[in-house]
Amino acid sequence: EWPAPSRPTPSNMAALVRFVKRLRFRRFPRPGHSAGFRQEGTGLAPFSLSRPFFSNVRLCGVATEQRTLVKDEGNTAVRAKQALQFDWALNKLDSSVRRTGRITKTLLFKIFHDICRTGYPSGNQALLLLRSCGSLLPEMHLPERTELAHRIWDKLQELGAVYDVSHYNALLKVYLQNEHKFSPTDFLAKMESANVQPNRVTFQRLITAYCNDGDIEGASKILGFMKDKDLPITEAVFNSLVTGHARAGEMESAEGILNVMRGAGIEPGPDTHVALLNAYAEKGDIENLKQTLEKVEKTDASLMDRDLMQIIFSLAKSGYPQYIQDIVERMRHDRGYVPDAMNLCLALITQGLEETAFQVLKTIPTFQSENQNGDPLDFGNFFIRHCVNLEKPLDKLRQFCEGLKETNLHSAPFQFALYCALDAKKEAMSVELMKIMQKEGLPVRPHYFWPILAQHQKEKNVQGTVEVLKVMQNLNIEPDVETFANYVQSAFDNVEQARVQLEENGCLVNTVGYYASELRTEALNGHLDKVYSMLSSPQNPLLDLSNFRGSLILGFKRSKDVDILVKITELLYKDERFCQSSSGPTEAIGYFLYNLIDSMSDSEVQAKEEQLRQYFHQLNKRDIVIPANLYRGIRNLLDAYHVPELIKDVIILVDEQDKLSDADLPKGAEAKIVALETKLAELKMENRSIGETLKQLILLLCETENMQKALELKAQYESDMAIGGYAALINLCCRHDNAEEALNLKREVDRKDSSASLDTNKYLALVRVLAKHGKLEDAILILKEMKEKQIVLRDTTITSFFHILNVAALRGEADTVKQLHESIVNLGLAKPTANLCSPLITVTLDQGNIPAALDAIIDCHKRYNQMPRLHDVLCKLVEQGDTDLLQKAMDFVNQERGEMTMLYDLFFAFLHTGKYKEARKIIETPGLRARPGRLQWFADKCTATNQVEALENMVEMTQKLFECDRDQMYYYLMKFFKENNDWRKADATWTKMQEENVIPRERTLRILAEILKSNGQEIPFEVPETWYEDTSTSSSVARSRETRTPDLPVDSASDYQRRLLKLSKKNNIQEALEVFQEAEKKGLLLGLAVYSSFINALLSHGLLEEAMDVKSKVETRIKGFTLNDAANSLLIITQVRRDNLKDGVAVLKEMLQTNQVPSQLAIARLIQALGLKGDVEQIQSMEKLMGNLPHSINLSKMLFVNNLVLAHIKSGNIDAAVQYVEPLYIPRENSQQQLTSMSYVFRKVLEGKCDEAVDKLSAMAERLANHFAVYTPVVDLFLQYINGDRTDDAKFLLQRCPAIAEQKRSLVSFITRSAQKAGQAHKILGLLDLIQDFPDKEIAYAYLMKCYAIDNNVVSAKALYEKVKEEKMVPDELFLKRLAGLLKNSGEPLSFTEPPESFKFYAEKLKREKAAESSDED
Fold this sequence. Notes:
67% of the residues lie in helices and 0% in strands. By secondary structure, the protein is an all-alpha fold. Helix 25 (450-458) runs antiparallel to helix 26, helix 30 (528-536) runs parallel beside helix 32 and helix 49 (870-880) crosses helix 51 (899-912). Mean pLDDT is 80; it is low at 1-78, 367-376, 660-669, 1026-1050 and 1413-1418.
């Protein structure tokens, strides 16, 4: 019932109840049923994937925790590795099941062997492997699956795994799924001998085993035993009895079970009806089957496509394929239909029913097998692969491939079948498939034969190699140079023998490809004299150096004859036959020498130092020269190899026309300060210009936070002050909250140079301090200046704007919030995100004016398409019982965001306010999917506010929610029970998890074990060994237990701890500070985790001084207290925002020394700030200090590369920047990872208008593209030109490097990103104008229409539609839907038929198509 103080009227209550009921029976496109096992022993993967396991194979999404290695003896390292491997295994299984609904035998075997190698398998790992041996393996025969389960059981037991009742229950489940015949009594005896007691789940599955054999008597014995034990008889037991009576030939008794259920108060659900329908299917009773289906369709227990597929499987397996079409026609093609149909096909093929499988395959709806352009998605890969693996007859395989192509389910079925045959090493089948392909008019390429030749090569089977070449010759396929060199020549003892034997067997050898292969082979074998002879002969064919460069380099490395190396190099340099490119012999030989050195290791170069020296000198004597840029690359390599002595021998080869320059290294900050002070004094004495020196000194003083001295210096030399010095001083004053001085300095800047601009951070600092001190008009003027001067805005800018607005909202300054928000949005400085708009709601909501808050949300959505703080408003409405306003809110959300979002909003509001009956009706809406982020948000909210009832109800209600991570939900409960020391509820929850067949993560088992152990209870499972320990968390929990009392007095430490933690999580910083100060006054000691959370909250709001003050107080009370990883990361970010880079570097170094892991964001912000400062030395120091850490936290290598380049440029050393980055992009044999994007560098230098840097970087990018086919840098520069509206520069670059137009992935990615923001249409148009023959115009036009929709540009949208029609393209539904929306909003008629479904429907359709394409890749 509703709360008494605000009880609604009866009419309003009835309206709300009707509203909830109406929502309950709305239908979504169905994602698949979630009711668990429909029928045991079908052997069919999609139907035996119970919801708990389907969602809880996802066992490895373990939240990242702070991990400190436990220093202990024994097997700690092994346990740590084991846990990491288990995480990997769970991730792989989860990914496979979620994409395809199944796992592969290969993946399962790999996980099994990895676990065995550790030698210490845990009970949880054993449970995972056992449960994977059932219907999740539809590609394996049933006996093989059971045999695998037995093998795993025995092996893990041998390695020391301890089995409990959950393992025996899992083995029972596998038996049932695999239709394995076994004796239930023997199984119970086996459990008894192992001293394992069966539970309710065990008895239920034993009943199913009896019933599957039609043994009602045996099932009755178990039933009687359960009644004696007072164990509940669930729906699953009745379902098994339906199957048992049917298989015993007692169909009337099977039908009567439904009445028995109703008499017992259990309404037959979908599972029961499916059991009865399967019974009819096994008997071939199609009439009763149809009648039952019609009855079920008239009830609430509607059947899903997955249920109907079970019936199809039963009909096919029982020998009644003639009835399958009747069932197929009843399919609704719910969401999730594709993976379910795939798994049905696999199971049917495994059972030898491939014709029926193909019939099912063809039922895939057209919209799910085509993308938005009508191109086939190659659906059916899994079908072809399984047929090939099981060696189905070729005539059937050909029939299936033709059928797939005719129905547009697959664009290249024959090619894929050939790929599968080659992959499975089925040579005869592969050759026959190639013959079939030729008959079908399909091309057969030389590389198709490589896998077959590779096998013969491995076995040294000369005759097999010859036979394959004959087959190629018979098919009129000429082998290319790669085929001969890599797969044919190596099968023979030498080149001469190969030529003789191939000629004797009638194989063609007088081709360019075969000659090139001989050249490569001789070079690889070190026969350089023969190579020189072949190259010198004018009779041999023309061949460019690029065709054999790699092999020649390997030959050079193995040779000790300097003379032959020089002779070959000279021949390549002076003979025009080998240098066909426009760059000429100088660059060709330069790159050859670079690649030669690059291919050698440091030890090889050191060992051959003298030989290389002679080689270089001999080349110099023969007048061979190389370009300076390639010399620099070789020099860098030699320096890295610690052989700098060779550099002087290489430099003699540099072309005299090129100029060389040395790179100057920057000095440290302290040394610079001393030097600049001395220099400033000298310049002043000599009456020379001191402007630049003064600016540098001011900057350094600001870095050291010496505001007084910096201001004194400014006052002393005001006439010589530069704008850069003023900018640094303004930022310094803002950091010290000196609004008046900062504003005066800004005005001085405007008087000196009105066109001068500051950087983004300094403008934000000014706005923040001016708004704080009531100077609103001045703050708005700063915002306008940011817009007028086109200040570059970064991601952190929006966050800064939010904090400025929110602080004003908390102060109750509604007018300030409104004016600042309107200025920010109207000026286009930031998008009106939900976070940015939330202060507009906060002002009214905090005053208790709920209708006004709702109106503000609606207004926010109309103006900005955002709904900030909606949950808070809904909860208030539910508490007040205001059904009219609630109806208004829900109708609004439904209209704007769709039913799914509306249902979750209402679900959480009902749960939060204790209206569980209404919440259940919402969450049981058919087709509702789990949204993990939203569920986790609400669970965390319940934990923070001590709402155990709401949390328990949410966990129970989401049991059958599609894709709900059940272990995660139960983990939330376990955490709560641990905090409240409630072992009884924890133990009951453990039993419930077993009933649901949930595989718990190790953290769930550990927390349950801790609860039971602390209360003196027996632990019914093996406890995973803890290989790390979060000292702060454990200490906090221990301390909270010590301070917890039964009554929990209001002024106790526990009460303050709870309040402070709650306020910190809610970001109520001011109240949190007051609670902390009260606790300090009373001398109360709180938990470490609470202090850490509070400090994190302070730092996240930029309150550095307050955070450090709290830290110093805690340190005096708790010995050894330190900030955790998250707090230190926030500290670094805060210091970077305040331009305290020195302190930020110090914190990062301290973190690394204490084995803490900084966040990606903290490292990135610090390195970027150092790059903008030109601090090369510090960036290099940071990169070296971090070692392999960036890789472990997925931090891009480009962060250091780009910022080092930028730092070189900022310090005025552009040549050093080019010399550093260019060799990194050149492909190298020893390189493990090639660099990616340089967009950041190009954007910064273009924004900084550094033309010299742009020119030199552009020249470098073009060299990489033209000589190494490395197009990333030049494409990055091209797109930055377009992004900066420098169309002419982009055009000239495209003319110099036409290959840019072929980089489809990068160009489409640019279009996609551009379409996310308003006002970007001109960029896409500019790109299309430059590249007239753009490879994917359909995609480009679709995103261009999206831009017009965002900009509300009706005229351009109509023109684009006409252009699409002129070019005879077919626009997709999203294109037409967007255009229709624009036309209707402007009151114009539609000249086309608007797609009938909602925009959201077509957007989700596109997502499903991509998901189907992704899943079919398996």
